[in-house]
């Protein structure tokens, strides 16, 4: 018992320490409440928020009053907005709401500008850029108004054969938009053609398109009549003053071949003609034939 009393007894110094610790704990516990009581209430400026709400309400009321044309629905959902329509003379914005791309709309508008008209629902399916799936989505909503009395109905084929010839693009000067206007060339393919043209310095014959990634003989056969070449505008390299960085840009040459061309010039003097290039052992005849149009002696 005496041991227990001794264990639980504290000196005056220990009691003071306990009291100070208790006071610190009590202060830590009460400090958040004291801070909230002493801090002045924070004021927020809600005028901008209220103004935004009022503007939203005004727009919503206007939409309810005049009706929503579907454009806001498509912007928010990313899905087409279908409605009954006559494809003849339909505005571009209405075509876009129906889910067509800008390029497909341009194709339809070009068809109309050349005198084309849709006489039956099936005529829309014959536009080359309209897929079967897209036509299937649109077909239930097509309502074609009959042409004025006295005008003889013609088939889609008759309108198609009366179109003006497709525009012909000059490959060495045309830009991306001009290439995309060529039937059979989309944005991605137009970008590839221009990148390869810039790397080459220009095309000197149409067959070089077969070297563009993704171009096969079937596609080339469809495009060759819609393209032309002006070899006079290709970028040429003076072979007797060109450095390594100038020649390495040519896609037909490997680094080893570029180095061999420079070493031969250093040892034997300036090149005078294509015959001198044939003396560079690592240059096959086929490669020489490809690079000659880009070199100036």
Automatic annotation (TrEMBL):
UniProt-recorded name of the protein: Helix-hairpin-helix domain-containing protein
Keyword Ribosomal protein set for record: no
Cellular compartments per GO CC: type II protein secretion system complex
SUPFAM superfamilies documented for this protein: RuvA domain 2-like (SSF47781)
Native source species: Hufsiella ginkgonis
Transmembrane segments: 15-35
Keyword entries, A-Z: Membrane, Transmembrane, Transmembrane helix
InterPro entries reported in the protein's UniProt record: Endo/Exo/Phosphatase_dom_1 (IPR051675), RuvA_2-like (IPR010994)
BP-aspect Gene Ontology terms: protein secretion by the type II secretion system
């Amino acid at each position: 018992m005496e041991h227990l009393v001794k264990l639980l007894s504290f000196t005056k110094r220990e009691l003071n320490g306990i009291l100070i610790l208790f006071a610190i704990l009590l202060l830590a516990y009460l400090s958040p409440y004291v801070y909230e009581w002493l801090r002045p209430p924070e004021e927020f400026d809600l005028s901008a928020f209220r103004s935004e709400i009022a503007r939203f309400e005004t727009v919503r009321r206007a939409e309810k009053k005049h009706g929503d044309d579907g454009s806001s629905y498509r912007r928010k959902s990313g899905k087409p907005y279908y409605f009954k329509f006559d494809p003849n003379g339909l505005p571009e914005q209405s075509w876009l709401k129906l889910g067509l791309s800008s390029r497909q709309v341009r194709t339809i508008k070009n068809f109309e500008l050349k005198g084309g008209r849709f006489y039956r629902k099936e005529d829309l399916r014959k536009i080359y850029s309209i897929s079967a799936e897209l036509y299937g989505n649109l077909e239930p909503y097509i309502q074609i108004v009959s042409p004025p009395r006295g005008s003889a109905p013609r088939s889609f084929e008759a309108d198609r054969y009366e179109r003006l010839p497709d525009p012909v693009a000059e490959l060495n000067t045309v830009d991306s938009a001009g290439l995309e206007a060529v039937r059979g060339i989309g944005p991605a393919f137009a970008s590839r053609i221009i990148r390869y043209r810039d790397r080459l310095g220009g095309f000197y014959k149409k067959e070089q398109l077969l070297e563009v990634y993704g171009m096969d003989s079937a596609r080339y056969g469809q495009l060759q009549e819609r393209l032309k070449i002006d070899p006079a505008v290709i970028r040429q390299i003076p072979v007797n003053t060109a450095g390594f960085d100038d020649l390495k840009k040519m896609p037909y040459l490997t680094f080893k071949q570029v180095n061999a061309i420079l070493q031969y010039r250093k040892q034997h003097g300036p090149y005078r003609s294509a015959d001198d290039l044939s003396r560079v052992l690592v240059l096959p005849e086929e490669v020489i034939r490809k690079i000659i149009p880009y070199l100036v002696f």
